[in-house]
Amino acid sequence: MDGNPVDDGPVDDELMMMQFEFRNAVEEDIPELVKLGKETIAEVYGEILSEDRLEPWIKGDRMRSNVIQLWRNMIVAERESEIVAVAAYFEDKVALLWVHPAHHRKGIGSILLGIVETELKNSGHEVAKLDCFSDNERAMGFYLAQGWKPLFEEMDQEVGALKTVMAKTLKKEGWMVSYELEFTAENHIKNSNSQI
To answer: pTM score, two decimals?
Structure first.
């Protein structure tokens, strides 16, 4: 199942850091993470997927199994000791990004995605991947705005919906900046010379 029901907006990182605490998940978080996942996908995916496709995740044990598999690679956002959002990574992939609907458009997803991208980059990955249901327009718009590029669509057989596989090149600090500066300077010089 696509793990990316996100609806995020512009964010003031400093303000966000004061309102929310971002930390690594711990095993004791599992029940709260399962609850967050079920509430989030019920509301967000309820618009995209049929009830029978959601049932194993909302009423069954699929959500708990997913959280147990990934909790060691999860970053949570807390507000007043309540987990309101989570992101996880696995290998070279953003495995999930869930923001409770009551906290959409507060910038939490942007911060969590940035943290996970940094974790992936620090693990040696130059390119990260993720899946997003193609009909999840809010999440698709969010990822596009964050610099993710669609690669291809494929059918998620488990839930019977198209998902878009996306990728993003993870910038290496220093190298990319100096290359962009050289390229810009070179173009400026070429453009200046062509006008002479």
So the answer is: 0.77
